[in-house]
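Bench notes, bay 3.
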Amino acid sequence: MIIDKNFFKQTHSFFKDISKEYLLPNLGKLKNDEIVEKLDKSLVTKFDLIIENELIQFFNEKGFFNIISEENNSDLFEYDEYLTIDPIDGTRNFVNGINKVVIMVSFIKNRKSIFSIIYNPIQNDFYYSFNDEIFKNHDQLVLKNYYQHTGFLGLNAKEYFKNEISKYIEKKRSRSIGYDVIEILEGDRTFMTIYGSKIWDLFPAMSFLNNLNFNTNLDNFNFDFDILDKKIIFYAKI
């Protein structure tokens, strides 16, 4: 596998094509038989499955074979190097016609993020973290300065994270972890909480937040499976 600017440009082009074919035309227009509620009460649609299979094939052709993805829920055969895929982060938004959906990918090696991608199909904005830098549409992103905390805390989170965040401007969560990260990158949000998460949305988000030098209640930014059940907060340094 070769990970360079050309790789990211090809990936961006592919994400744009599959979004134009499957995601954008069906946003908020699904039929009942195209939606299934999973055991955890989350939703999966016909197009989650189609897009995921397209992504797996694309990354296989690029040399990535050890893949864990949301809908296939693959069993990794090797835990030191793997790719994660979330075909539609914000599936409930997709079903309800809310323009807050993203595609997320991360490549993890030896508990470190090599690269992560968050793609906003609505705006055709392609964000990726690589070599400790963050890029938007292939130009290095100018990182924002944060002066006042903005974000969302539920009732339990207000108590649980009171030592990290006290005064803040409330901003509702988007119900897409990846979209919340985009809002952080654009300076519209300064913190987010994640718990009960899955590897395919937590690890891509962590990659960007690590490169933003965010604080967290985690001991470190190692990409370990044992953090998946923890209550986590990531927040900017004000």
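Next record in the batch:
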Amino acid sequence: MKAALVLFLAVVAVCALVPGPVSAQLVLYDNFEAKVLDPSKWTASESSADGIDILESARMINTELVYGFKGLEILNRSYANTESDTGRLGSYDRVLFTDGSHIMTIQAKVVVNKFQATTCSTNPGATEPRARIGGMFFNIGTAIPEDNTNDIFAFIAIGRPTDSSEPANVLNVYGIVSLCNNANCSVTTQIHKEDMGTVNKKKVKVGVSWDPSNNQFLFQKGRTTQIWNNIAPVGGPPGTPRGGNKRIEINHLIPNCATSPRPMSYMDAFFDDIKIETLP
């Protein structure tokens, strides 16, 4: 396993820009036209690392006021751990596919309506609120059920770190591929980060996909897809529950801060037209 992991972390990436969607075989999973979330399609959770306080949180079908569509609204406001001045911790509010076992592609239309983030004067780490779709796609070895260790996860994210050099109200779009290093994936190793450009607070189509036949990850923003080829050993399905906890979420990274004022991260985003591709 150690040899395989060393090989994995020595990954060689080749990126290409190609037009069109992540996949031509996408089917609509949910467009949130019902009054409430469908429990046959979704489950939900929210959580935070020790010391982080979630003070505002919601997930519901609602009408987005700028574009006028019905969609899934998720909002979350979280405050930093105050016991340290080093490192960053996270929190999230998410809905998960009830069974993501065969889902290889997730696509969504996303509008970030509001975001706020404050920093710590004694910790240089950036605060970042972000909207994400993705999950765990495979394990590099033989997974232990209900255990994230050695699972590979990929997301496409729309966020804005407080150290961003972009103009106000402009968010970064990027793809992430990482390795879970422990059972609850609280410790991770980032393998690849794919810059997908920027977007302001407007509706954008984004997607993430794993192509197992070619061992490629694909990240979509609008009409552009970026492909990342890797040599990661594919051992089998992820150990993470529900076929990889594939999900739609608001996720925060907040620097620990023992001084006042306490850093805060907030985002309110809408998700619509969730499409997926599954393996037979």
